[in-house]
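User: ok so my PI wants both of these folded by tonight, can you help

Assistant: No problem, let's get them done. Here's the first:
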Amino acid sequence: MIRVLLVDDQPLLRSGFRALLDVEDDIEVVAEAGDGEEGLALAGEHLPDIALIDIRMPVMDGIEATRRIAADPALARVHVVILTNYGLDEHVFNALRAGAAGFLVKDIEPEDFLHAVRVAARGDALLAPSITRKLIDRYVSEPLHPRADTDLNGLTNREREAVALVAHGLSNDQIADRMVISPLTAKTHINRAMTKLHARDRAQLVVLAYESGLVTPRGR
């Protein structure tokens, strides 16, 4: 059973999402919250698999709630999916950096919404290569200074290569072709790198690759 926490300051939207989720045999809405502070408390109480969190809310916004969930070892199993009206804007970008597994636009089709919840529950990031490339474009337009505390020395050469290719927006199959390995081996390299770097998903790998200086956008 996939346990879901809904966090949105609009009761009507929460009701709509709950109506979609409650009819599914493998999904259960365990709690609802109207702001990030309440959502954070309920995440600790219920330990959901998925926290669907609106990005703009009173008291505590979705970015801060995401950051606190990602920083709490007791909530390591909680995958945050950001809900937004606007697509990949500055707020979503910051939420992904804070630890969100991905984001959904609120006008998503119902079947796509349900599929996304199941994908996130498996631990897979809701971050297609096309979205990864948009993150890269943001680094090109607003370059960040490499952070000295982002240490990739614990990675093998092959893991570093795989992380660099993730940061360039390649899918697992494309990474396998580039490295001349099987897709399963490519996924293994990426998963091991995520474990060593304490990255929650591919979005975090992209951030770490650029903040460590492993990859530099060609447009910089």
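One down. Here's the second:
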Amino acid sequence: MLRRGSGGLPREVGVLAVVAFVVALGFGIVAPAIPLFARSFGVGTTAVGLAVSAFAFFRFVSAFGGGSLVERVGERLVLATGLVLVAVTTGLAGLATSFPTFLALRSAGGIGSAMFTVAALALLLRVSPPTHRGRAAATYQGGFILGGIAGPAAGGLLATLSPRLPFLLYAGFLLVAGAVALVLLRAPDVVGAGAREDPTEPPVEPLPLRTALRSRAYVAALVVNLGIGWVLFGVRNSLVPLYVTEELGRSAAWAGAGLLAGSAAQALALLRSGRLADTWGRRPSLVLGTATGTAALALLVLPPQTGVFLLSMATYGLAAALLASVPAALVGDVSPARGGRVVAVFQMAADLGAVAGPLVAGWLTDVASYQVAFAASTAVVAAGLVAALALPRAQPRT
């Protein structure tokens, strides 16, 4: 039997949230140093961008393989192996003496990141009871958000001391997170697709991906996660700072204030959103989240105003709190067994949005305007609203 922590959640959920915090904190520390360190090799701006995107690209293309590995050997081993792989490649990247070596190590780190992310989410959804799945996803995402808020401030300071130092520090954080995962994630982890918590129960096979794709709930989760990656991990970080300085005529500090407002609103609303997903229902929670996110982005299509911009960021943060928990809970409802590949494709949807969003929005800004780029992003989020409205009103019992 799984051990329960506070609020009826399995203890493993708290452990995964702590691991997520450590990983996000370390990533936030190293993020400001990546372009500076790449520049130190004397390369151009395009090469610097390649150093940033290589990690995300290899994370995307290797996620499905990581999901297959989860189904074969179990979440705990894949999770810890992924963390160690990112730790080793990050530490060696900080010691690299040439740009090709640095780029290759960053690419390999993306593979480890995919292994960790897919395994952690698959384990979270497997151990969480259906009545608490939204709260479990919200708790896990809360670790990422808090670490992501704390990391960049320290990272900028450390990068001014030495561009190599953040990489070595991040590697150390990841080794700690891997050790925590191996020691504290003690849930039964029988090798094979038929792994189960109670040996008296018949084995539960992972849901085939083809079957999952016939579920409207799973397709809705994919579409919404694509929008989250597009806006939250893509456009918000790439286009918003330029919009503030070039369109609003404000300093970069105002861009930071907007991003902080969004992150703070998301962090404050996250646990409440998880409870809402479990008690109010998946469909109404998803409709509310996607409708709020669509309205928040539509504000940026209006003529530029600083107040409207800050309102948009804060409102989207509230929407992101719901959209960080409800889609994951839907995936767990569809595939409650060890569904590595089902979880992997769900994660790939967000990664695809994070890669495509900045490219498409940046191109639209160049050929048209910021408002057109934000309108396209609003349409992507609105597609999630359409998918949410298409869900049956009475969700089947899991």
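Residues 45-73 form the longest helix (29 residues). The chain has two domains: 10-184, 209-389. Good luck tonight!
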